[in-house]
Amino acid sequence: METLDLDNRGLHTSRIGLGTWAIGGWMWGGTDEAESIRTIQSAPDHGITLIDTAPVYGFGRSEEIVGKAVKHGGMRDQVALATKCALEWDAKERVARNATKQRIFKEADDSLRRLQTDVIDLLQVHWPDPNVDVRETAEAMARLQQDGKIRAIGVSNFTPEQLDAFSEVATVDVAQNPYNLFERQINDDVLPWAQAHDARLLAYGALCRGLLSGRMHADREFPGDDLRNNDPKFQQPRFGQYLAAVDALEQFAQDNYGKHVLDLAIRWVLDQYPHSVALWGARKPDQLEAVDNVWGWQLDDSAREQIKEIVDAHVTDPVGPEFMAPPARA
């Protein structure tokens, strides 16, 4: 397992983190708590020492499950806990952005309670709030760090301009953005910013909501409130284009590395930037077994260029992850 110093101050974690959005159940068709706990507790067996969650994932449910799994498994000294703040919701589960100081302080305390811990290793502003000056948000995060409630500071879904403004007040240790073979928009903005400022990059959606797992098929259906029912990538005719690209990438991975497209997709994220971490979403322990296939090999510049050509040749009508953005408050 490859590791890095997540905050340049000794917070060492694995370069693959366990993503727990689906474990919260909301927008993923429900959850199985016992199975989720087994999944979290099996993560260190595969070298995974970073667990990423958020209050909005199941409206506290994901954090509660993570907290229970880590405490009952005696894992707290083995893993770094990353969560988020700056989203609110109402009784009808309508989500909106809220990055005021008061909201951030409240969420941090709620997260500490749900996670059953004395300190959050990495707290991230989940989405920028257009109704709040970024500097006010940064002041709140800096205060939490000064008070010893959090160790490292991160932001998610920020632009370079917002990152610059935030950095006037507090250091951005980590930038978390959607990043995968099909969603490469940050190559032009956030990734160069992270490189210039020696910030770490947490890539969420590294498998593009399972599209790069190699297990999707054209007639796949998604139950309940699964967000992929609203994801334009999973609607025809685009879905067919992406599946064709996956097939071609699978062949490329097998021919050149004896690997699968899932292995290739994660390796691609890691090899784009030496200070990147790929978040790997899983709800069952066996979904972590393939983690072991990612280590011990790399993609050089030529391979990454060939991969880009394969994707661009098959996906003629690409679309980004914009559909996931929550609204601002009225």
List the helices and strands and how they pair.
Layout: E1 3-5, E2 12-14, E3 16-19, H1 33-42, E4 50-52, H2 61-72, E5 80-85, E6 87-89, E7 95-97, H3 101-115, E8 120-125, H4 134-146, E9 150-156, H5 160-167, E10 174-178, H6 190-197, E11 200-204, H7 238-257, H8 261-272, E12 276-281, H9 301-314
Parallel strand pairs: 3-4, 3-12, 4-5, 5-8, 8-9, 9-10, 10-11, 11-12
Antiparallel strand pairs: 1-2, 6-7
Helix pairs in contact: 1-2, 3-4, 4-5, 7-8, 7-9
Features:
single chain, 330 residues, alpha/beta, TIM Barrel, eight-stranded parallel β-barrel, two-stranded antiparallel sheet, 9 helices, globular
Task: Explain what this protein looks like in three dimensions.
- With 330 residues, the chain is of the alpha/beta class.
- The protein has a single domain (3-212, 266-296), classed as TIM Barrel, CATH 3.20.20.100.
- Helices cover 34% and strands 16% of the residues.
- It is built from 9 helices and 12 strands.
- An 8-stranded parallel β-barrel has the order 3-4-5-8-9-10-11-12, surrounded by 4 helices. The protein has a two-stranded antiparallel ribbon with strand order 1-2.
- Strand 3, helix 1 and strand 4 (50-52) form a beta-alpha-beta unit.
- Helix 7 packs antiparallel against helix 9.
- It is globular.
- The mean pLDDT is 94.
